[in-house]
Amino acid sequence: MADFKTLDDIGDVTGKKVLVRVDLNVPMSDGAVADDTRIRAAMPTIRELSDKGAIVLLLAHFGRPKGAKNPTQSLSLVIDGVADVLGHSVMFIPDCIGEGAKAGVAVLAPGDVAVLENTRFHAGEEKNDPAFADALAEIGDIYVNDAFSAAHRAHGSTEGIAHRLPAYAGRAMEAELKALDAVLGNPAHPVAAVVGGAKVSSKIDVLRNLVGKVDHLIIGGGMANTFLAARGVDVGKSLCEHDLVDTANAIFDAADAAGCTIHLPYDVVVAKEFAANPPTRTVNIHEVAADEMILDVGPAAVEALGDVLKSCRTLVWNGPLGAFEIAPFDAATVALARTAAALTREGSLISVAGGGDTVAALNHAGVADEFTFVSTAGGAFLEWMEGKPLPGVDALRS
User: Fold this and answer.
1) Which residue among 31, 189, 217, 296 is least packed, with the fewest CB closer than 10 Å?
2) 36 lies in a domain?
3) CATH number of the domain encompassing residue 303
């Protein structure tokens, strides 16, 4: 990852105005921050710069105001949440460009932290308008991007500004890029990928990219049913994209050509309705009745998948194996996640997971803290797994 400048390369920042792109797009409840995970992720960078005497100016978006000012999507609403985590007061500046922003910045002293107003109140942000990027750059001396979750967007505050000021990766961005490099950039082989979720259609590009990079591709969730159907299995009433059977077969062929083994369940948990704790059966995949739906991977397959992970050095995980939101269809995801966590603990596996459902599933299994790295970025993590360039990352390359 030597092609990224980090805070280690930044030099003396005393009195310098450092624009830090962070992710403050946090869930709210009754006017207060309901989950401060994203705020906490930015703290190492904010504290380090503040402690070194920088004037720390936080850039972020909040919701989708579509280029117009909207008081319900003002970042003033998250100020208390940021201050609570930081442990001291944070100033709010009611614009992110122009004279209003400059006037707010002018009263700040070295070490102070301020949140600038929602970048998306300006249409130029999402259009990556050069004039908007110029205006952002005018209020700062240095740019730091610490928002990997927004790195797949070529916006003014994520990409445009990085070409106008000395640009660096913040600590959260640096950790994310190092973790991603360790699993798909320059990984220790054998590499396994777990890809789950409801639909193949949403992850075709992920699967196509992964078969050329990993040694074992474990497919779960509703997606697995489409692949089983492509292999001639009658999946009954299960969620299945029958129109994508040809796509699934093409992915099987690509995997064969690349020397990647695709793992599908051979025993499954079925029920006649998708509800909490209905009557269930654990059956061989060839025994699914016409009125039954596959809702989880069976215990024998999970044990076999655990053995696959034991043979691997690296794991990347995106998506649950079954309908994990409802018991008992969380069993396979929980069991395999705990196996991966145990292998990570003992030092035999580097494990990286990402995506909203995945983070929820790992938290549910009680092992999110035991993976090597868990990315909270949804779209950016998925596009990275697809092998697509991330404009906000590419703009930081030196």
Assistant:
1) 31
2) yes
3) 3.40.50.1260
- Whether 181 is in a domain gets the answer no
> How many C-beta neighbours within 10 Å does residue 317 have?
28
Are 314 and 217 found together in one domain? yes
For 227, the domain range is 187-385
Give yes or no: residues 197 and 58 share one domain. no
What is the C-alpha to C-alpha distance for residues 213 and 188, in angstroms, rounded to an integer?
11
What amino acid is encoded at 258 in this protein? A
Return left, alpha or beta for 56; rule: phi > 0 is left, psi -120 to 50 is alpha, else beta: beta
125 and 268: one domain?
no
* 117 and 201 part of one domain: no
Number of structural domains in the chain:
2
Same domain, 325 and 275: yes
Residues 235 and 361 in one domain: yes
pLDDT per residue, tens digit, the chain (398 aa), is 448 899 999 999 999 999 999 999 999 999 999 989 899 999 999 999 999 999 999 999 999 999 999 999 999 999 999 999 999 999 999 999 999 999 999 999 999 999 999 999 999 999 999 999 999 999 999 999 999 989 999 999 999 999 999 999 999 999 999 998 889 888 999 999 999 988 888 899 999 999 999 999 999 999 999 999 999 999 999 999 999 999 999 999 999 999 999 999 999 999 999 999 999 999 999 999 999 999 999 999 999 999 999 999 999 999 999 999 999 999 999 999 999 999 999 999 999 999 878 888 999 999 999 999 999 888 888 888 888 989 999 999 86
Note whether residue 203 is domain-resident.
yes
